[in-house]
Design brief:
Elements (H helix, E strand, L loop, with lengths): L2 E7 L5 H18 L4 E6 L2 H11 L6 H10 L4 E6 L6 H10 L7 E4 L7 H14 L6 E6 L8 H13 L3 E5 L6 H9 L6 E6 L6 H7 L6 H7 L3 E4 L8 H17 L5 E6 L10 H9 L2 E6 L6 H5 L10 E4 L6 H20 L3 E6 L9 H10 L3 E5 L4 H9 L10 E5 H4 L9 E5 L5 H10 L6 E5 L7 E3 L13 E5 L5
Parallel strand pairs: 1-2, 1-3, 3-4, 5-6, 5-7, 7-8, 9-12, 9-13, 10-11, 10-12, 14-15
Antiparallel strand pairs: 15-18, 16-17, 16-18
Helix pairs in contact: 1-10, 5-6, 5-10, 13-14
The structure holds cobalt (II) ion.
The site of cobalt (II) ion has 2 residues, from loops.
Amino acid sequence: MKKAILVVSFGTSYHDTLEKTILATEGAIAQANPGWEVRRAFTSAIIMRKLLARDNLQIDSVAQAMAKLEAQGFTHVAVQPTHVMHGEEYEKLLSMLEPYRLSMKIQVGQPLLNSQEDYEQVAKALLSWLPRQDDALVLMGHGTAHFANSAYGQLEQNLQDLRETVYVATVEGYPTLDRVIRSLSSRPEIKTVTLAPLMLVAGDHARNDMAGEEDSWKAQLEKAGYRVNCILQGMGECPAIRDLFVRHCAEAVEALHTRGKLWGVSVGPGDPELLTIKAAKVLEQADVILAPDTGKADKTALNIIRNYLNGKKPELVSTPMTRDKEVLEQAYESAAQRIIADLEEGKQVAFITLGDATVYSTYMYIHEKVRARGYAVEVVPGVTSFCAAAARLNISLCQGSEPLLVIPASHSAREFLDVPANKVFMKAGSAILDLKKTLEEKNMLSNASMVENCSMENEHVYPDFRELDKTTGYFSLVIVKEEGK
Ligand code: CO
């Protein structure tokens, strides 16, 4: 997978504003998206021609930029326009992208003004960013014959919700400067006016139509009797406006689903038929299958899933059997890093675990590390060994009001013996005969049953635990029912 963000701007031929607005916005987007190639395209052919002829500066059109991305094997492209609204420029952009949708996954970010939240944030951003030196503020928007022009009226309302003496007018549409001058005249207390562009850049419109000497908005306002200050800064210079573009771009990036997902796939106790249908599906669709490697050459989990690999070869991840916290932490961290590298490439990673992932599974330590870093994770539950053992013994684990206590036998068998509950002792392992002795001392042996390697090929069932006279393997499980129940 190759991922790129194409930042599309109308363009400007003024280098200073280009740097402070368009380049700054591209920079903010690049900073927020490490691992993504960020590229530039302009939509104004006039400006691109001018930059090439005057400065020998070649800037790609949208078609040129997309063709390059396609030729270079990019697969996922987020396109973030720096346009103000869903007008003609935005619609043209959408249609220009159409031919490339066959070969690449493309998502287009929203322009500056889309949701009501955007309007409120833009109003707040501009009012706190622009200096408040005069009685009134008049913002110069571009204006368009497209119906999106109504965005200017909506923005003016949102600005006036915050400060009454802020007005929006446009060069080519409605509201007009004449309308603003009429509004100003109804407030005789207004003597001074600030003019600022409601455009990403401070280009020709700002320099000439707004702040020029003749026929400009400045000149017209001065003629109407106001003292006028002009701010020649495009909105792209305002960090909060850039942040809004960054956020819109993040939505497009998110919608591309470029990050994979980690699945903790519980594969049940041993019998391949006890694998859930969901687990089988996830395994079949996963790009990568990982299995824990305890160093004991135990192939039980791999054996369970062998019919659902779809030609993939499971990879082993070292999960040492030790109580050394540092060794474990290191193993889990390197497993998490390995998984994250795959997720960043958009892969679906299935990590298999015996029994159920939520019951004494090493997997959950890795799961937690990956989740904490913001990646998508999901656990597929499975049949636990103690449920399978009870089924094998044809007994219930708990009924009616009986509590059930699950105890890791090699750690803490003794502390819980007096708790009035049916008990499952898991992971007794080599301590199985110690456990037997302990139960004997407590007079609990007559209600104890044991299953070794439940549902596996080398399964041994001891309905009466007393019959066991030798040490058993790791997968030994003892169930003790409360007396008289
Ligand atoms: Co224009």
